[in-house]
Design goal:
mainly alpha, 147 residues, elongated
């Protein structure tokens, strides 16, 4: 026989209690709840919350304003200035003005863009479109397209 079969089992120690009745399963109802978890609360009177004595300062926990990043408005202003300079010499520079107007309008829709720069870009781009249109009308009259 092996050594394991020869040693007798030890009696239970004094700190262990025998199991009384059946052991309960995890999640089994133990009778402690009297209403559903989503049932209404029994509120009988409505009371207002107490008034705070002094409001906390809002400067300490307010988020700082994001810095202005003029990426789109800067590009719009640059293209508008280029379109204005080129439109003094040729009439086919109006696409530059149209591109600048579209990009400046997109910059006005963003909160982090510089609004003043975008508005200047729209004004300068509109002037470049007007100058380009003047050159195109002048070229059409010179070619006697309008008789």
């Amino acid at each position: 026989m092996s050594e394991r079969e020869q040693t007798p089992a030890e009696p239970p120690s004094e700190d262990l209690a025998p199991v009384a009745g059946e052991s309960r399963l995890p999640g089994e109802h133990r009778g402690g709840f009297s209403r559903l978890p989503t049932g209404p609360l029994g509120i009988t009177e409505m009371t207002a919350p107490p008034e705070p004595e002094a409001a906390p300062p809002t400067d300490s926990w307010a988020t700082p304003a994001p810095p202005l990043r003029s990426a789109l408005s800067g590009w719009a202003l640059g293209v508008a200035i280029l379109g204005l300079v080129v439109s003094f010499f040729v009439g086919w520079a109006f696409p530059l003005g149209l591109i600048a107007i579209v990009v400046a309008a997109m910059a006005l829709r963003r909160l982090v863009e510089d609004r003043a720069m975008a508005i200047w870009a729209i004004c300068i781009a509109a002037a470049s479109v007007v100058f380009s249109a003047g050159w195109l009308v002048f070229a059409a009259y010179s070619a006697s397209l309008f008789s």
